[in-house]
Each structure stands twice: as structure tokens, then as C-alpha cells.
Amino acid sequence: MHSEPKVLLKQAIQRCLPILQSLVGRFSTPCLVWKNTGEGQWNGAWVSHPDLAQIFAAADKEICHAGAAFGESFLEHHKEFNGMVGCPRFGWFNFGAYRTYIVRSSLGHLWDRFESFDLGEDLVDGLVKEVEAFVDAPLVRLQFRARLLNFRSHVASIDLPEGLRIRRLTESEFSSMHGGTMYNRHSVRNNTLGLHEFCIEGVTEEPKMHGDPKEEEPPASDQVREKLDRSMLCLRTFKAGKVGYDQVDYFPVAFCPLIFGSRFYGDLYVPLGTYEIKAHEIAPLVYHAKLVFGVSDDAMAMACSRLADAELRTRPQDCIVDAVIGMEALLLAGMDDRRSELSFRFALNYSMLHPTDERKKAYRVARDLYGLRSKVAHGSSIDGEKLKIADQKVSLDGASTMATESLRFIMMFFLAKKGSPHKNHDFWQRAYFGLPEEL
Q1: Strand ranges across the sheet with 84-87
Q2: String of b and e for 32-42 (b: at least 16 CB within 10 Å)?
Q3: Is residue 272 within 8 Å of 151, Cβ to Cβ?
Q4: Is there a contact between 149 and 196 (Cβ–Cβ < 8 Å)?
Q5: pLDDT digit string (tens) for 278-289?
Q6: What kind and span of H or E run contains 84?
Q7: pLDDT in tens, 404-415
Q8: What is the rounded CA–CA span in Å between residue 155 and residue 292?
Q9: Is-contact 156 167, C-beta < 8 A?
């Protein structure tokens, strides 16, 4: 960034700060603010907060006057900003048509960070350096944050692979997510599913581009969604429970005048429920997440995906179909001809993963689950009063739980093994004859 607009930006900010500070006490609005009382309990109350929209509106002429010289100098020395600038996946902004926008954004950024306009020169200098970094850098560094639905834990944070972290929201973040002013409550996300105090977050980078948007360019792959979806696979395959995320919010890590907002993703519907990670489960979860993020085998990926989907199904029939398909992906992965004896081989292979004295029951469980899945998939009627799995009378809900837990058992058995042995016919033959696994 050229030295002249840097000096003029600092001067503009310093002229505006006392004017804005004098207006803080004059304009206010009721806001719903939440306080954490511990053990997952939150209390909300309406309090009076400064109304920035009215404050900036009242100081509009002064801001335009103070920022005019900067706007002229900035566009003269940085002609690439005299037009559309943005990140293609989020949107564009015309800096040439709104020349004092960077000054206004800088002032708003200072308030968001310090909740005051009574600031010293060192803080203004720090912000000017951030503006300079935004102007010169080809990328914008963003933090993404998604609210975790139904997630509970007494532990404040859990680190996952690829820079992801699950953590409890701060009071300010919780208030921003579940509160708001009296006049924008309609814009606050739907809280009918309850108040959720955990989020999953990470950091990503987006390219900063200049000029007219090129609609013909194919969209870049959404790495954020891929990471979040993989993290949901980790949680849903680790243990039973209804867990998911809704919209994802994006925040620049440092100053950035561009607007990113939120994005919605078409994940499966997450029903009401509870998913809790206890302190002793953290290390196993982290290890499990490392394995799931490293999955490259198609059959294992299918099994993980089907188990994750099964955990969110509201109809037990759908849950059974998903879970048994996942079991089939692993138990029959080594068969070249899947058209013969599938039910027998499915059940036999499942039984081979159990100790000898448990194999007969395991065989019957898998056989009956496979048969039940076939009935559901082919639209056959099921008499819930006569439903049995391994001669044990169960409900459809009970059968769906057996299916998901059976799939989870198989997946955990193979996930930590190298070389995808479930695809190796020799692995199953050795199991049939009680021979040890080859090293």
C-alpha cells in the first residue's frame, strides 16, 4: 500500500474517533444478551447497547469529509481497486463507487474489537497495518464457524485433524448467535431446536480478485464443507447420537472490508437429540477422527457414510437400510460375484469377526438384519409384532439400533487395520479356518 493513502487513512480515522465516541451515549437499542451460568445453562436478558447504525448515520457527513482525501489518494495509487473487488465464492464490492468505505469499515472494525472509539494512536497504527496487509495480499484469511447441534461436553475444546476444533462458545459469541437487537430478531437463526453452546471451527483462505466477475469460470471446490462433513462422519461413526451443524459463518481473521456472512449447506435433517462426549472419550475420539480423515478406501468410505446417515434417520426402516448397506460394503468387499449366496456370505463374514463362542449368534443377527433390509428395500410389509432378530423379539427401532451398532462394530474392526483386509478374499478364508492373520 502506498505511503500517502496510509498517512491519510490514519488521519481520517483519528478525526472520526472522537466524533463517534461523543455519539455513543446518545443512541442505544435493546439487545438480548446471554450469560453462561455453568453446566450448559444460559440466562438471557435484554440490555441497552449502543446502536452503531444510528451512530454512523449521525456522523455521516463528518466521515465523508474526513475520508475524502484518503479515497482520492487510494484510488489514484491503487487503480486495481477502482471497480469490483471480491472473493468469487462470496461476492463483490465496488470500491470505486463508495470511496469512503474503507474508512467506515476501519471504524466499525475498531468498535467490534474494542467496543469503544476512545482509542490511542498505537491501536490506530495497528489497524492501518492490517488495512495495508489486506490491500497488498492476494488472499483473504477467514475463520469459519458452524454451530454444533445437540453437542454436549464438560470439556471446553477438542482438537480434530486438519486444523478443526470443537469448542464452547464465549458469552459474546453465544449472544451474537442466539441474541440480537429487538429490531433484527427475525434475522437471528432459528432457535426452536434449542440453544447450542458448542461450535466447530477452522481457518481457510480465499483468493481476492479484481475486475468484473467471470460467471463462466467453474466454482472452486468447497474445502470448508468437505472438512465439516468429514468431521460429522467422525462424530456420527464414533458413537450413537443425533449430531450435526447448520449454517457456517465466516469472519476475516484480520481487517477486511469485504462482507462474507453465512452459507447454508444441505446436510441431512438433524432431529432433536443429545450427543455427549465425556472426558474419557476425548482421546479415543481424536484417534478415531485421525483414522476417518485418512480413509481412502471406497468400501470403508461407503460404510462410514452409511453409518453417519443412519444415525440421523427418523424412520427405523431407513436406518436399517443404510446400516445394512454399510455392513454389506465391508463384509462383501472381497467377493467378485455378489449375485450368489450374498445373504449366507454376509452373515458368515460378520460372524468371523467375533470370538468363537459368539459366532453362532452373530451369524443369526447378521442373517436376519440382511433379510429385514431386503424386505424394507423391496417394499414388503413388516409385522412389528412378529419381528425377531436371532430369535429375539425386537421393535423396528430396536432392529435399527442393532443394525447401526453392528455396522459400527465392523467399521471399528477394520478402520485401524492396514491394507483394506476386508477386500482380500484370503483374509476371509483364513478366518473361516481359524488361521491367524498374515502380517
Answers
A1: 91-94, 84-87, 209-210
A2: bbbeeeeeeeb
A3: no
A4: yes
A5: 999 999 999 999
A6: strand 84-87
A7: 999 999 999 999
A8: 22
A9: yes
